[in-house]
Amino acid sequence: MSAHAGTGRAAASVDRVFVGRAAVLVLALGQIVSNVAFEVFSPNDLQSGVEFSPIVPPGPMFAIWGVIIAASILWAVLQVRPSVRDSAVRDRLVVPLSLVYAGFALWLAAASLGQQSPLTLAVFVLIVGAHAVAWRRISQGRAEIAGWKPVDRITLYVSQGIYAGWTSMAFFVNVATVAQGTGAPNEGAWGTTWQLLVIAAAAGVAVVFVVLSGGSAFYALAASYALVGAGISSSLGGFAVLAVALGVGVAIVVGSTVVVRALRARRGVG
Question: Which ranges of the sequence are coiled-coil (predicted)?
């Protein structure tokens, strides 16, 4: 009787693991579906560049989404393999990554109501918060991750680094567009001031993620890419003060990453 009960509990546990991992895969693939649905059915197009807002990167730079989604799908495929079912780290990433991938679809749904809709901010808070939880759990599980196959380990670090790097900065781009939609000016003393505050907040959040991720080079690369893109738009629009501030933001991201990685190396942390 007890043997049968034990077997049943084990089977139920395995089923829960499979269902959770499968959900990650479905939601990761769903990012493609939601993107296509947005392109076909949304009454509004996503705008970019200085013509729309001084700190929104130029349109071509948003092509990074293709890399982000491809990397997230690769991770989702790798983590669902039966051979890696016994993995505490992968299990602990199921919930936050499910929220991230579902959040992408929710953001597009909110953006279809208008890119300046406050609803987009609520979704971004969910996405960025889920990324913070995911990186916290990754950092706590580095001992296990060190024993993974290189393809799994690299895919996790790359996918999480570039996804978190881009979206954590895109959140503040979204803040700027929503503020602009409420009537906040882009020019003048107040226009410059509030946008500088947004840039400062973005740099601060980037430093938090650099610390959470243990100095992820992939995070720093994607976050810097976003800030450089915003800087390009600011420069093209003649917003020199904003462009300089964004350059300082890039220096802060890179500098904090170098410091965190140096401290980890000094302590002998892998």
Answer: none
**Could you state, in order of their start, the residue ranges of all structural domains in the chain?**
6-267
Report the interhelical angle of 240-267 vs 217-236 (nearest 10°).
Answer: 170
CB 98 within 8 A of CB 23: yes
The predicted-structure confidence for 124-140, as pLDDT tens digits, reads as follows: 999 999 999 999 999 99
What is the tens place of the pLDDT at every residue in 166-184? 999 999 999 998 898 888 8
Residue of 117, 98, 95, 93 whose CA lies nearest to 107: 117
Task: Give the Cα separation of 76 and 61 in Å (integer).
Answer: 25
pLDDT over 80 at 5, yes or no = no
Output the CA–CA distances (angstroms, integers) from residue 126 to 77, 83, 236, in the order listed.
23, 31, 32
The dihedral over CA atoms of 204, 158, 215, 142, expressed in degrees to the nearest 10, equals 120
